[in-house]
Structures
1.
Amino acid sequence: MSEPERSLIEELLAIFNKGCDDYEDDLIIVEKVSEWLKSHDQSAEIIFEMVHKRRNDLKYTTLYAFLLCCGIGTEVDKVQMVHYYKMAAVAGDRVAANQVGWSYHEAVGIRRDPDKAFYWFQRSADLGYAMGLGWLGQCYEKGVGTKRDVAKAIKFYMQAAEGGDAGSMCNLGNCYRNGDGVEKNIEMAISYYKKAAAKKHGYGLYNLAYCYQNGQGLRQSEETAFELYQESAKLGNTDSQFQMAGMYREGRGVEKNLLQAFGWYKTAAELGDINARCELGYCFQLGIGVKSDKNKAMNCYELAALGGNTVGQHNLGYAFQAGFGGVIDLHNSIKWYKRACHEGYSGAYSQLHIIFKLQNL
C-alpha cells in the first residue's frame, strides 16, 4: 500500500470509529464519510476498492462491512455485510459484534434469531461497547433471547448512557416517563431525551418534540415541537415524518401546506410506515396536496390494511363498497370491515350494518 493510500484509509477509519462511538444512526456516519470524501475530492468507488483489497485485514474488516451495509462506493449487500461483520466479531471487534447482534435481531442479511442476537449483544457489551450495552438492555427489557428483567435493563441502560449511547439515553427517558422499572419522573425523562437529542438520536428528538407538543414536563410549544420533528424526520425517523405531515396539514406549529403534508406522508409511507400509508390513501382519495386518484388511494389502503392498520382495513372495506377500483365488490368490502371489527375498530360495525340491511343479509 502506498503511503498516500495508507493515509487516506487511516483517516477514513478514524472517522468511522469515531462515528461508531458518537452516533447510533448510520445515516449520520454516512454523512460524515460523505463530507470527508468531498473535502478530499475522492471518489467513493475508488475508496471502496482500496478498502476491498484489505477486507481480510481485521483492522479494516468492520469498515468494509459498513461500506457494504450502506452502499458507499458499491451496491448494498446485506448478506456479505453480515459475513464480514461476523469475521471481525469472532476476532473480538466490539462494533462488529454489536452489528451481528443487530442483524440477527432485525433479520437483516440473515434469518432472525433472538438467542443469537442476545449472544452477540452480550459479546459486544463484554468488550465495553456502549451501544452493545444498550442493546443488551433492550433484550432484558423486552425479553429477547432471555427472560425479561427490567431491573437488569435499567442497569445496562445506565451503563450504556454513561458511555455515551444515545439510544439508551432515550430508553431511560421512556422508563422514567412511564415509570417502568423506576419511579415515574418526567423531569428525569426530559433530561435524558435532551441528552439523546443533543447526539442527534432520531427517537430522542421525536420524544422531546412530543413532550413539547403535549406540554409534558415542558411548556407547550407547537413551534419547538415542529422544529424537533423536522430534525428527526431528516434522519429518517418515520414517526417524526408522520407528525410533521399532520402539522403541515393542519397548520400547527407551522404554516399550513398541503403539498408538504402529502410529501412527508409519502416519504414515511415509502419507508414502510403503515399509518402514513393510510393517510396517503386519504390524501389520494380527497385530493389533499395531490390530484385525486381513487385507484392510488385504494392501493395505499391495501398496503396499510395488510400491515395491520385498522383504519386502513376500514377504508379498504369502504373502497370496495364504493367501487374505487371501478367495480363494487361487497364480498371484499365485508371481508375487510370484519377484519377491522375483529381488530377493534368500532367504526366498521356501522358500515357492516348498512351493507347487511341493504342486502337483507
Note: The chain has a mean pLDDT of 95.
2.
Amino acid sequence: MGGIKDQDFVAPPSTCMDSSFPNNINNKRLYQIWKGRNKFLCGGRLIFGPDASSLVLSTFLIGGPALTFCIRTFSRLSNVDFLYSQTVLIVGLVLTLLDLIFLFLTSSRNPGIVPRNNRPPESDSTSNSTSSMEWINGATPDLKLPRTKDVFVNGYTIKVKYCDTCLLYRPPRASHCSICNNCVQRFDHHCPWVGQCIGVRNYRTFILFVTTSTVLCMYVFTFSLLHLLEEPGHIWTVMSHDVISVILIAYCFIAVWFVGGLSVFHFYLMSTNQTTYENFRYQYDKKENPYNRGMIKNIKEVFFSKTVPSLVNFREWVTEEDDDSALESISKKFGGDIIKSSMKVDLELGLFGKDGKPIPEMLQNLDYNGIEDSLKKDRGGKIDPLFLTPDQEDKYETGDSPVDDCGSDDGSHRTSSVVFHNRG
C-alpha cells in the first residue's frame, strides 16, 4: 500500500537466533526487550498500543447500544411480522459482530513498525546525499549525518528525515509516533479510540471499522425510529412508553456525525492517496502528490492490494546486549571522548552518572578536544590526576608517573599528547 513497493528500504539486520529455543538466559523474544511502548499478548502475536485500555471503552460504546437494539427487536418478534423482525435482528447482529471484529483487528495488528537500529548509520552511507547540511550531531566531528536526505519515489524526489530515537532515516511516508515511540510505515495517525497507530498494515481494517460503525449507527437509528412510528397513539405518548428507542435514536444521531464525518474524510484521503498526517501538514498543497494514481487505482490499492509484510518479527529470539555493547554502539552519537566506564547510557534518555542521575544535556554536548594540554597539568608540569584514566591513576599513585622523568616541557608535551590521543 501507499507506494511501499517502490521503496528501497529494507529491515535493518537483527540478532536473530536460528534455533527455536534459547541457548542461554540472555536470549529473549524480541517483544520482551522492545524499546517501544507497545503492549504484547499471546507471546508477541498480538501487538497493542500503550493506550490499549481504550479498546474496552470503544467496545462498550459500540456493543452496548447495538446489543440493546437487538434485544429490543427480539422482544418484538411476536408483535409484528416474524420474518421482518427476524431479518432486522440478524442484520443488526451481523453488523455489530463485524464492527467489533474490525475494531479488534485494527487494534491488535502491527501497524507497520520500522525496525530500530542499534547504532547510527555509517557516515559514508550518506555521502551521496544532496540535501540538508544541518548536522545531526555537530559536537562530534567524526559523526556527521545530514538531518535529511533525498530519495526517489515514482520519479519524484522525496526528502526523508533522520529519526534520533530509532537511529535511522525514515522510509518515505513514515513518521515517528510519540505515543507508541515507534516509526511507522505510511503513518496516518494515532487513533485513541482503537489505542493503536494507524499505518500501512492496519489502515484497511481501520477504514472498514469506521465505515461499519457508520452503517450500524444509521441502521439502529432508522429501525428504532420505525419502531416508534409503528406504534399506535400520539408520538409523545409512544415515546414515553418506549424510552429505550428514544435513547437509541438520540445516541445514534450524535454518533453518526462523528463516525460518518470520519468516513467521508477518509474516503477523500483514499481517493487522493493521502494520509491524515500529510493532509494536516498541507504536504501536497503546493506540489504534486507522487503517490496519487487516480481515484480508482487509489481505492483499489487500499482494499484489494496484498497486506505489506511485517518488517519486525517480535517472536524471534534475540541476544540481549550487555551495557558495554550498548555503550559502544552509541558512543559516537554522544561524543566518545567524554563517555567513561563509570557512566551508563540509555538509548532514549541519554547519559547517566555514577549516582544514576542524568547528565545535563549541555555537558553531554561539550567538545573536550579543544582543551589545551596546559589546563590538564598542574604547576609542576605533571598531568592533573583528574584527567587520567583509571589505569593511569593506579600508576600515578604508585609513583610510576606517566610523565617523562626529565620533567622538561618537551617531554611533558609528548607524554600528554600520547595519553589523550590514546583515549580516543
Note: The longest strand covers residues 156-163.
3.
Amino acid sequence: MALVLHAGKTNKNAFKTLIAAEYSGVKVELAQNFEMGVSNKTPEYIKMNPIGKVPVLETPEGPIFESNAIARYVTRLKSDNPLYGSSLIESAHIDQWIDFASLEIDAQILNWFRPRMGRIVYLPPAEEATISALKRALGALNTYLASNTFLVGHAVTLADIVMTCNLYLGFTQLMTKSFTSEFPHVERYFWTMVNQPNFRKIIGEVKQTEKVLPVQSAKKPAQPKEAAKPKPKDEPKKEAKKEPAKPKEEVAEEEEAPKPKPKNPLDLLPPSKMILDEWKRLYSNTKTNFREIAIKGFWDMYDPEGYSLWFCDYKYNDENTVSFVTLNKVGGFLQRMDLARKYAFGKMLVIGSEPPFKVKGLWLFRGTEIPKFILDEVYDMELYDWRKVDITDKAQKERVSQMIEDAEPFEGEALLDAKCFK
C-alpha cells in the first residue's frame, strides 16, 4: 500500500510532508478528489482522525494525524536521513525549531488569520496583541538568522521545511512587504527556502501579499429547511416553482465571484501638483542637511488644495507607563494604516525619557479632510484627538517641520522613538 496523504493541494500543512518526501525519496500520493469540509467529514475519515482535522497520512501500519508527526514519520523512513540531523544534538535542535515554528510562529499567524476570515469573532485589541507576539517571535528568529543560513547545520533540515511552511500563510495572506521589512534576515531565509527546487516543485511560485487580508464577517449557519407543508386547498394556483431557481445567487454563495472594485473617492479628486511618491523618495533618500533639503522640498511640493496636514494626540497618555507596550501600540496603529499607504504619509513620536510617555503624530492625507475610509476601517483613529494644521500659522508650520525632522528635544522633551509611515 502506498502512502496516501488526505489533504487539499494547497494545504500548507500538507506541504511539510510532500517536501520532506521529495528530499527523502519517499513516494507519497495525495488522496484523489479531496474536498475540504466534505471528505474530512466522512465516517471513513473520522475513523482515521476522530476530530476530522487535516491532514492525515494513511500508511500500511495505520493512519497518522498532526502534520509535524506525519512529516517526522516520512523523514524517518529513510535511515540516517540528513533532514533529521547527524547527531543527537542536531536532532534535538531540529525538534526545538519545529516546536518554535509551531508554537511561536504558526499559532500567532493563525490567531491573526482566523478572525479576519470570519471563523471566529474579530476583536481589534486581540489582533493587536497577536501581532505584537508574532513580531516578538519574528524578531528572535531574525536575530538567529543574522548569522545562520539554515536553522540547524549547513543544509536544509526538517526544521527549515516546517518553519517555511508555517511562514507561508503569513507571507501570502497577511504580512506585507512593509511588515516583513522589519525582519530582513527572515525575508532572506523565506525566499531562499521557497526557491529551493524541492520546495518549488510542491509549493510553486510564491508571491507576497500586497495587502493584509480584509476582515470578513462570520458566515451565519444555514437555517435548516422546514419540512414541506401541504398547501391549503384554496391556494392551488401559487406556482412558486415557475420562478427562476436563482442560479446567480447560488453561484454567488458557492464561488463568490468577485465584483468590480469601486474606485476610491480619493482617486476621483482633481490632480494635485504634489506627487506623494516623490516626497516619500525625497524623505527616504535625504541623509544629510535634512532641514535644507527634505524640509524645504516638502514645503515646495505641498499643495493645500490637494492635501491636508493633521496633528494627532493620543487621548490616554497617562496609561503609557511601559515603554515597549507604548511602542507596540504605535506600531499596531501604523500596521492598520497600511490600507492608506497610497494616500498618506505620517510621523508618530513617542515622547519622554520617563513614563508616562506621550504619543503625538503628524499626518499628511490626500484631500482636504481625513479620508472617510480610514475613519471607518482603522479603529485607532478614535483613540486620538485630531487637529487640522493651519499652515498660515508660523508656529504650527514650524511644528510640522520639527515632527518630520524628528527634531530633539521636541517641545522640551527627549524622544523615546520616532516612527515613519511612508
Note: The chain has a mean pLDDT of 89.
